[in-house]
Predict the 3D structure of the following.
Amino acid sequence: MWVGIAVGALVVLAFIALSVMAGGPKDALYMVRYALPHMHRGNLKIGDSAPDARLIALNGTDRFHIRERTGGKPLVLVFGSFT
Amino acid sequence: MQIFNDYKDHADFLTVYIREAHPTDEWQMKSNLKEDVCYAQPTTLAQRLAIGNDFTKRFKFPLPFGVDEMSNAANDAYAAWPERLYIVDESGRIAYRGGMGPFHYNTKEVRTWLAARYGEVKHPEEKKDQKPADNPAEKPAEKSEPPKSGAPAKS
């Protein structure tokens, strides 16, 4: 029984900590739902060949590959979104 | 982006627009409302392109820009969501891998990598605000030593 209470208390404490970190209980839930599955994702390491992917230019018609932009100088890749 | 202005002659930059981090139909943040950045998660390429265009126009964004396909191929290949930085060297290999944003999205590490290779570009106004040490809570990203050979360092 005490183990159950301790585990429950830990879960509650973890949730409170996550809420503080995320900005509120709702954000903590969203963090668990949307962000946690992405943590520790990806296994690219320094020295690995950079993966290629096809991208679309903002005009919606031109396509190009990340690899086309490598080879001349170092390439800084900035991944992100608007929100 | 100051790093782009400082190092665009030495390095290429490419912004890759990936799936939204905080769309209205998923995990919307209060800050999105305050900043009037409210978009649903795009379900079509046209919607994704429209947001990309809004973004570049709103901020007069100067970096070269590409949009991930709806298959999220670039996002998956680089584990990029919600935001992440990489440097690919001239041989096409990963030279720097930043951590998962926003907590481990660290442009200073990119600047450090570029500065080690091409020399530091100082900005007097940055010096005033500079903290004595980086946030210790931030996990150090995996990075390689930039080769000292190559372009001569600026003094």
Observations:
- DSSP finds two helices and three strands in chain A.
